[in-house]
Amino acid sequence: MKRRFLLALIVPLALGACGTATPSPAPTVTAKSVAEIQAGDDYNDTDVMFLQMLAYHQKQGLEMTTTAASRSADPQLKTLAQAVQATEKDELSMMQAWLTQWGKATDVDTAASLHADHGGLPATGPAEIKALKTVSAAGFDTAFLNLFLAHQHNAIEMAHLETTQGQNKEAKAFAVRVRESRQAEVQQMLKLMNS
């Protein structure tokens, strides 16, 4: 519990320390651990789809940020990658717990044809992640930022779908947090690209 509370305090500070512009207000932090949030039993198919797709999406994000934390030459980018990792690991555990609570699969079927009705799977695929791991050291930071910007925009789109069509109160509140945190990450990455 203490570790997660500390992460909840450190992540916004680390993200805020990355930029050179005037810092924005830090998000409200509570002592309640992400893993302690219960989803309840009132949910619809959109809630399930959101959690399954975002869990898959975040596994990809963790793979990319692990690569960035070890390969980036920019200390600010490394800090951002580590902060994203800490946040998304906790979120992933929570989403998997909710899906298990609902008796649903924690992994999404990656057949694109199954997801055509709601926009398909996230655009980041195994080929893009593999290419990121082999890009030259000189081009890594730019390649990562371009790929991860698009990746986080996809998370924002998923969160929007959940907030407009989901039913579960906790999942919708989580989607709002996802949207806000990913928008902040996008802004931070844009600053890094322009510095």
TrEMBL record:
A Pfam family hit: DUF305
Signal peptide per UniProt: 1-23
UniProt entry tagged with the keyword Signal: yes
All residue ranges annotated as the DUF305 domain in the record: 47-192
Keyword Signal: yes
Keyword annotations from UniProtKB, A to Z: Signal
Protein name: DUF305 domain-containing protein
Species per Swiss-Prot/TrEMBL record: Paractinoplanes toevensis
